[in-house]
Amino acid sequence: MILKSENLEAWFGEAKALKGVGLEFESNTVTAIIGPSGCGKSTYIRCLNRLHEETPGARIGGRVLLQGRDIYGPEVDPVLLRRQIGMVFQKPNPFPSMSVYDNVAVGLKLGGIRKKRELDSRVEWSLRVAALWDEVKDKLDRPGTSLSGGQQQRLCIARALAVKPVVLLMDEPTSALDPISTARIEELLTELKKTVTIVIVTHNMQQSARISDKTAFLLMGELVEFGETSALFTTPKDKRTESYITGRFG
Amino acid sequence: MIAEQRGRTIKNVLMCSALAFAALIAIIPLVSVFGYVFLRGFSSISVEFFTSMPRPVGETGGGMANALAGTGILIGLAGLVGIPWGLAAGIYLSEYVAAGEKGAGLGGAAIRFGIDMLASIPSIIVGLFVYVVVVMPFKHFSAWAGGLALGILMIPTVARTTEELLKMVPVHVREAGLALGLPRWKVIVYIVVKGSLRPISTGIVLAIARVSGETAPLLFTAFGNQYWSHDLSAPIASLPVQIYTYAVSPFDDWHRQAWAGALVLILFVSSLNLLTRVILKPSGRAGA
Ligand SMILES: Nc1ncnc2c1ncn2[C@@H]1O[C@H](COP(=O)(O)OP(=O)(O)O)[C@@H](O)[C@H]1O
Ligand SMILES: [Mg+2]
């Protein structure tokens, strides 16, 4: 097991968005987090790379262990931690007025890698793993924002992969994309999990069923059920899970 | 039904033509100022105007070479003051104050208030201020003082455009930078600010356009000079002040040159405005 949260709580000011969530993520698996809008899915994964604390007034309780080490420990630098836990967002967000190449290379460049050859090879590797290389290899100097929506999202995946994280967090990465781009990214995920451990938020249950090994169902900041995806969707243990997956609310 | 529709169409046409008429009246001053300055100035512009020094009273001919150079120098000095401080204030307001950074509340409110005040202070007051804090202690007018006065006048324009442009960068772009394991300051400098450099530079160009025609704050800072000045601690000529001096003089030849100077100034400011369009025009390539 590579990552786990224990009794994780999160606040926005006085509002409690997570009420003690414990989850475990195994290496090279895809774990989906599902639940109705506002149940705390984004908040949860933003606690895993310490992005939650960037919101003014936000704080957390409980523990998150990456390879056995508490990421909220006093000796942990959140900046360095985030190189190990990458993130892809809901809306494709290539950096403005940056080329395709620079979008992927920027994390490395600003992280101190200067050698052109090293940058080139890492950019190519990332774009290949993100299944984008063939489409952009001839337009690496074009703005990242000139790509199509689906390509932009794969560019963002490549950008996150370039710094070689061990875990990749994805917050509804396909919800702004058309069905064909969505299918490409879903396909990509099964390849990607050979390289990184994936935690993906989705409010699309079919997507969760298609791509994940395990699924966690959150409701109003609480973990309702967590288990093998096939089991959770066919024989849910909790009444609330059952009514959610059968579409009775959410 | 039909009658009602026709009534609506008529009202539409009336409204539209009334507004078009009002808009036309609004641009009449612009067109006539431009036209008049062009008429008067064009015949007086010559190579000599750009290359020669002012002649003593009574002699005809001569030009405003020193004033043109002086305005260039003053704009350069103003940029040294206005660009860094304006950028810093704009970045601080957008990235720390507007972002709700702890501890930025009071200082941020003070800075925002200061910038707003500065934007509304008449430029002559800024000139007076520089007169008191720079000219009086050093006991002489100088290019430094003039540049400082113009630079102070640039700050609010640069700060506000920078702030507004940076606020347009979505929060999730900043978060993507943080999520890559970049420290906050690198995200701000290399992703947020660098990504908005093009529009920000238009804000800077507009600020330069605005101050390059300022006259009042130069009267008791840079003062003016009939000769070349290489010394930044000495009084220096500038186009607006030279225009003013010549325009209020009793000499016809000086009036002619004042018109020529006015035309050059208008063309310079208009070309700066055009430059901003060129900067903003998407070129299809990434980067600057
Ligand atoms: N920046 C914020 N400030 C205050 N409350 C927030 C903020 N972001 C989210 N919340 C609240 O936290 C709860 C969980 O939100 P979120 O994690 O975004 O849900 P989900 O991703 O499952 O839709 C919601 O009630 C939401 O209103
Ligand atoms: Mg969400």
The strand count of chain B comes to 0
At the first level of CATH, what is the class of the domain at 66-238 in chain B?
Mainly Alpha
Q: Which blocks of ≥5 consecutive residues of chain A have pLDDT under 50?
A: none
The unreliable regions of chain B are 284-288
Q: How would you sum up the major sheet of chain B?
A: none
Please give the count of helices of chain B.
12
CATH fold-type name of the domain at 66-238 in chain B: MetI-like fold
Question: How does this model look, in words?
Answer:
The complex is a heterodimer of chains A (250) and B (288). With 250 residues, chain A is α/β, with parallel strands linked by helices. Chain A has a domain at 3-93 and 167-245: Rossmann fold. Helix content of chain A is 37%, strand content 26%. Chain A has helices at 41-48, 78-84, 100-110, 116-129, 133-136, 149-162, 179-192, 205-211, 229-234, 239-245, and strands at 3-12, 15-25, 30-34, 58-66, 69-70, 85-88, 167-171, 197-201, 214-219, 222-228. Chain A has a six-stranded mixed beta sheet with strand order 6-7-8-3-9-10, sandwiched between helices. In chain A, helix 3 (100-110) crosses helix 4 (116-129), helix 3 (100-110) runs parallel beside helix 6 (149-162) and helix 6 (149-162) runs parallel beside helix 7. The mean pLDDT of chain A is 94. By secondary structure, chain B is an all-alpha fold. Chain B has a domain at 66-238: Orthogonal Bundle (MetI-like fold). In chain B, 75% of the residues lie in helices and 0% in strands. Chain B has helices spanning 2-42, 47-51, 65-97, 105-120, 123-138, 143-167, 171-179, 184-195, 197-212, 216-219, 239-247, 252-280. The N and C termini of chain B lie far apart (57 Å). The A-B interface holds A 49, 51, 54, 56-57, 79-84, 86-87, 89-91, 93, 95-100, 102, 106-107, 110-111, 141-144, 146, 156, 159-160, 163 and B 99-102, 169-170, 172-173, 175-183, 186, 190-191, 194-198, 284-287. Adenosine-5'-diphosphate binds next to strand 2 and helix 1 of chain A.
